């Protein structure tokens, strides 16, 4: 039976206090000698105890039974979902994939995860893992938690009803959900099937970027992020907990549902965000700003200005720049870029990049508009604005090379002739 949601509180990283039953949340003490209503008090820390206050994340959970209560862990076989990114050769070639096929047999969110690429790993607590999911069944009598990473979930097809220890997060395409490291959850499919993208962030937690000269408004505004209120179920039975730990999945039996947190307070919690609330900023004279202007969230790295992960979107916008090549330009970057498409048509490609598909352009590999897009944009009348409507593309960008997995390289839906999209670029030189 699905756990019903209990509403949300607005804001990013705020200290939230929420209780599903009046009186469940203790006042004044985090860990009173006896917690209210016979609950157990349990702290969940998402940052080092001594992290500076501005970055310190933790929540206190008041629950029917503590998280320590479960059976032995044994390995769980789901070999398509992993963090094996390899240490050997990696081709610099541009890569692209058609949409991940939906499963033909009953497959839930956990078994439907397929690792495409990544770098670093949970042992070093740096880098990212990039996965797609395609599923057609609710998670039944089982729960998942990821000790390795917070999970940025980007639905592309179908709604997800994500029941977590700290409350229910409902998302559909154009929304994102972030599930913190260690939080247990269960995913139900409101539409019977679903597909989307997941980025595991092994590093520092995602946060809103500074705005610099943009000022105090713009890009993703804090009030548009939503944290769920407490919601719980008090159910005994036969359940299993799947725990991702150091790149592998482990399974333990449980005799109760872990969605038993009646009240909680703190600032370490899942959240959701509607990408359509992103206040897109761009040039109103000529040229483009760098795509960092489309940054929704980033996970800072050890070097100032160099993120472990940038999450960037290319959404609806108006292009009014005069005498400017308006689509994304040809470029080679030190950063590596994994792109996905949620909806519509991405403005740098005429065809081949479909919703549910993906592309990978690694460090210093040339890419940009295909030949057809180049010809069209070069001849466009830039005295009139272009309205980019009905699309949402995104990018997971990071400073480390993104290493495609063996299964992604060998996948039948990989477009092995992707590079052909640039072969029609003519020599227009008139020197
Ligand atoms: Fe790029």
UniProtKB/TrEMBL annotation:
Cofactor(s) required for function per UniProt: Fe cation
Residue span, Homogentisate 1,2-dioxygenase N-terminal domain: 8-275
E.C. designation(s): 1.13.11.5
Domain of life according to the entry: Bacteria
Entries under Pfam families matching the protein: HgmA_C, HgmA_N
InterPro entries, alphabetized: HgmA_C, HgmA_N, Homogentis_dOase, RmlC-like_jellyroll, RmlC_Cupin_sf
Molecular function as annotated in GO: homogentisate 1,2-dioxygenase activity
Keywords assigned by UniProt, alphabetized: Dioxygenase, Iron, Metal-binding, Oxidoreductase
Ranges that cross the membrane: none
Similarity comment: Belongs to the homogentisate dioxygenase family.
Protein's UniProt name: Homogentisate 1,2-dioxygenase
């Amino acid at each position: 039976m699905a756990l019903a949601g209990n509403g949300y509180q607005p804001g990013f990283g705020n200290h939230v206090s929420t209780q599903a039953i009046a009186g469940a949340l203790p006042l004044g003490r985090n860990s009173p000698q006896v917690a209210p209503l016979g609950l157990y008090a349990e702290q969940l820390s998402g940052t080092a105890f001594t992290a500076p206050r501005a970055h310190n994340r933790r929540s206190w959970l008041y629950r029917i039974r503590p998280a320590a209560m479960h059976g032995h862990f044994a390995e769980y076989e789901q070999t398509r979902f992993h963090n094996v990114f390899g240490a050997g050769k990696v081709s610099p070639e541009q890569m692209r994939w058609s949409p991940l096929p939906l499963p033909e047999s009953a497959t839930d969110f956990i078994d439907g995860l397929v690792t495409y690429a990544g770098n670093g790993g949970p042992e070093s607590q740096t880098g990212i893992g990039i996965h797609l999911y395609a599923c057609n069944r609710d998670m039944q009598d089982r729960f998942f938690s990821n000790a390795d990473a917070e999970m940025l979930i980007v639905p592309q097809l179908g709604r997800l009803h994500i029941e977590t220890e700290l409350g229910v997060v409902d998302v559909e395409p154009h929304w994102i959900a972030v599930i913190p490291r260690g939080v247990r959850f269960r995913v139900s499919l409101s539409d019977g099937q679903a597909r989307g993208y997941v980025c595991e962030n092994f590093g520092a937690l995602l946060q809103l970027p500074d705005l610099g000269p943009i000022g105090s408004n713009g890009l993703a505004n804090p009030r548009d992020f939503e944290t769920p209120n407490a919601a719980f179920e008090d159910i005994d039975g036969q359940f299993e907990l799947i725990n991702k730990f150091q790149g592998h999945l482990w399974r333990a039996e449980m005799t109760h549902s872990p969605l038993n947190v009646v009240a909680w307070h703190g600032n370490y919690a899942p959240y959701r965000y509607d990408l359509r609330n992103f206040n897109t900023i761009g040039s109103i004279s000529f040229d483009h700003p760098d795509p960092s202007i489309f940054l929704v969230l980033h996970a800072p790295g050890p070097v100032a200005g160099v993120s472990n992960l940038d999450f960037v979107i290319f959404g609806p916008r108006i292009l009014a720049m005069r005498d400017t090549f308006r689509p994304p330009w040809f470029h080679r970057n030190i950063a590596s870029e994994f792109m996905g498409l949620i909806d519509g048509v991405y403005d740098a490609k005429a065809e081949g990049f479909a919703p549910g598909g993906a592309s990978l352009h690694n460090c210093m590999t040339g890419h940009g508009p295909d030949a057809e897009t180049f010809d069209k944009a070069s001849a466009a009348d830039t005295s009139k604005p272009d309205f980019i409507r009905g699309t949402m593309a995104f990018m997971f960008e990071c400073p480390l090379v993104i290493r495609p997995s063996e299964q992604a390289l060998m996948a039948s839906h990989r477009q092995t002739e992707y590079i052909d999209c640039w072969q029609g670029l003519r020599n227009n030189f008139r020197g």
